[in-house]
């Protein structure tokens, strides 16, 4: 475009030169100045056009980048919608589970409390072996039942565990040392428990042996003939002797009917 405008300016100069030839040097100089001014104006206009073209290219590139970012935001928004939908569904499931757990808790908590009470009654009526240990276990269960930070499943597990321990007592033999309340005061003796069939004791000096009588719920002193069997039973329970048959006194079964 600039070359074309230059050619036109040159033609104007030539025409002006022919027309002003007779005017002398002054007229020719004026024509040349006018043509130069036209060329400068044309160059300035061309520079503005080039600047505008550069601005347009920058705006087009910026617009393209904005479109690309908008598409990325649309994809991200769609992913967020899917995530929110999944979270709402999960929250609904959690609320349902919480409601079910609350209902189960309302049903099973009274049952577990009744199980603890039943176990306490059983221990109170049972052969009185390991009184402190069993009392502490029951106290721990009652304390646990009142705690909100212990899950219902854990409470149930602990109660079943206590029942299993009590059940195991019926088929094991055990020797332990502990206090014996007697008419003459409390004494420390060796106890021998044979399942729940017999609970025997022997003083540390071996001078007295006895057994628990469940019908009268009292201790009965035994004759000296039971000294050796009880001693043997204590040694077997402590794994100081091989298992063997021992003779222990038991109460005769009661007749009913």
Strand content: 5-15%
| Number of strand segments | 5
Largest sheet: 5 strands, antiparallel
Instruction: State the helix count.
Output: 5
Rg, please? 54 Å
- The secondary-structure element order is HHHHEEEEEH
Structural class determined from secondary elements: alpha+beta
What overall form do the CA principal axes indicate? rod-shaped
Give a brief description.
With 257 residues, this protein is of the alpha+beta class. The protein is built from five helices and five strands; from the N terminus they run ααααβββββα.
Write the layout of secondary structure elements.
Elements: H1 2-19, H2 25-125, H3 131-145, H4 152-169, E1 173-182, E2 185-194, E3 198-203, E4 209-213, E5 218-222, H5 227-237
Antiparallel strand pairs: 1-2, 2-3, 3-4, 4-5
Helix pairs in contact: 1-2, 2-3, 2-4, 3-4
Keywords:
five-stranded antiparallel sheet; alpha+beta; 257 residues
Kindly describe this structure.
- The longest helix is centred in the first third of the chain and has 101 residues, at about 25-125.
- The chain is built from 5 helices and 5 strands, in the order ααααβββββα.
- The model is unreliable at about 1-15 (pLDDT under 50).
- It has about 260 residues and is α+β, with helices and mostly antiparallel strands.
- β4 and β5 form a beta hairpin.
- α1 packs antiparallel against α2 (about 25-125) and α2 (about 25-125) runs parallel beside α4.
- Strands 1-2-3-4-5 form a 5-stranded antiparallel sheet, with helices on one face.
- It has a domain at about 170-250.
- The chain has helices at about 1-20, 25-125, 130-145, 150-170, 225-235; strands at about 175-180, 185-195, 200-205, 210-215, 220.
- The chain is about 65% helix and about 15% strand.
């Amino acid at each position: 475009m600039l070359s074309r405008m230059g050619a036109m300016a040159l033609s104007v100069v030539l025409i002006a030169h022919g027309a002003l030839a007779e005017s002398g040097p002054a007229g020719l100089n004026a024509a040349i100045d006018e043509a130069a001014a036209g060329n400068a104006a044309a160059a300035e206009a061309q520079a503005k056009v080039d600047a505008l073209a550069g601005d347009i290219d920058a705006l087009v590139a910026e617009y393209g980048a904005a479109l690309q970012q908008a598409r990325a935001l649309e994809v991200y928004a769609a992913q967020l919608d899917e995530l929110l939908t999944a979270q709402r569904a999960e929250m609904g499931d959690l609320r349902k589970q919480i409601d079910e757990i609350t209902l189960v808790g309302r049903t099973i908590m009274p049952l577990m409390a009744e199980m603890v009470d039943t176990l306490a009654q059983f221990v109170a009526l049972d052969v009185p072996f390991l009184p402190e240990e069993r009392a502490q276990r029951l106290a721990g269960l009652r304390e646990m039942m009142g705690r909100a930070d212990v899950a219902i499943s854990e409470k149930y597990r602990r109660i079943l565990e206590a029942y299993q321990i009590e059940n195991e007592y019926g088929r094991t033999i055990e020797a332990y040392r502990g206090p014996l309340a007697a008419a003459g005061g409390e004494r420390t003796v060796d106890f021998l428990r044979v399942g729940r069939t017999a609970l025997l004791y022997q003083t540390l000096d071996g001078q007295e042996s006895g057994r628990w009588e469940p019908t009268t719920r009292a201790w009965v002193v035994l004759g000296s003939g039971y000294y050796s069997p009880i001693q043997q039973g204590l040694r077997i329970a402590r794994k100081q002797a091989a298992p063997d048959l021992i003779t222990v006194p038991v109460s005769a079964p009661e007749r009913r009917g």
